[in-house]
TrEMBL record:
PANTHER family the record matches: TRANSCRIPTIONAL REGULATOR, GNTR FAMILY (PTHR43537), UXU OPERON TRANSCRIPTIONAL REGULATOR (PTHR43537:SF5)
Protein's name in the database: FadR family transcriptional regulator
Annotated source species: Paenibacillus agaridevorans
Highest taxon above the source species: Bacteria
Keyword annotations of the record: DNA-binding, Transcription, Transcription regulation
Keyword hit for Transcription: yes
Domain (HTH gntR-type) ranges: 6-74
Xref: Pfam families: FCD (PF07729), GntR (PF00392)
SMART domains, A to Z: FCD, HTH_GNTR
């Protein structure tokens, strides 16, 4: 039997959660900065950020870019619909399955039909993703993620596919932040890798390589699906 050793960010996350549950930090309270928490626990800042991201993903914290980290005003244990903000994980899985079928096709057509203005639009979104990563702005990163996939659909120049993607936009926008947080919690330096994967998809589309574009976006969505399956 394999014995798992608790990781640093898991220990920090558990301690922070205990402070919230025991009332040391109340709903709406602002937490100490990452630097202060890092010094207090004697761990690196990346470890603290992973712990905070995990608690945000579970619905305990609200991380505001440039404004600090706060305890959620409504804690998971107080939710009328239960303690788990991922109770709709099965629905999220269905959405990912639909996206895999739909977006591998849109990527194929985008590689074949893209025009210069489509590539410019995709490059602009990638630029926004890079800036969001540099600023550690998760909200902007999530918005750019949605915009990137919408831009691929537009580059397919198939109006029906674009309409289908638009119909998913609202649900996608609601869930992509949750899946990104789960993914970032699972893997170190995932934000950088996520950007690199989007850049690889863009390069395949720009090169007109339909097969590679379809493969890369399928692999990308499968990784997200696998993280969600672990949560289920």
């Amino acid at each position: 039997m394999k014995i798992e050793t608790e990781k640093g960010h898991e220990i920090v996350s558990r301690i922070l959660l205990t402070k919230i549950r025991e009332g040391e930090w109340k709903p709406g309270d602002k937490l100490p900065s990452v630097v202060e928490l890092s010094s207090s626990f004697g761990v690196g800042r990346s470890t603290v950020r992973e712990a905070l991201s995990a608690l945000k993903a579970m619905g305990w914290l609200d991380i505001r870019h440039g404004g600090g980290t706060f305890v959620k005003k409504e804690l998971p244990s107080e939710r009328k619909d239960g303690a788990d903000p991922f109770k709709d994980a099965a629905s999220m899985m269905e959405l990912l399955e639909v996206r895999k079928v739909l977006e591998t096709g849109t990527a194929t057509l985008a590689a074949r039909n893209r025009k210069d203005e489509d590539l410019a639009a995709l490059q602009a979104v990638l630029g926004t993703m890079r800036e969001a990563l540099e600023r550690d702005d998760t909200a902007a990163g999530e918005q750019a993620d949605v915009a990137f996939h919408a831009a691929i659909a537009a580059a397919s120049h198939n109006s029906l596919l674009s309409d289908l993607m638009d119909s998913l936009a609202e649900r996608l926008g609601r869930t992509i932040g949750q899946t990104r947080e789960l993914w970032f919690y699972q893997e170190t330096s995932t934000a950088v890798r996520l950007l690199e994967e989007h850049e690889g998809i863009y390069e395949a589309i720009a090169a007109g390589n339909a097969e590679e574009a379809s493969r890369l976006i399928g692999t990308h969505l499968t990784k997200v699906e696998n993280v969600l399956r672990e949560r289920l």
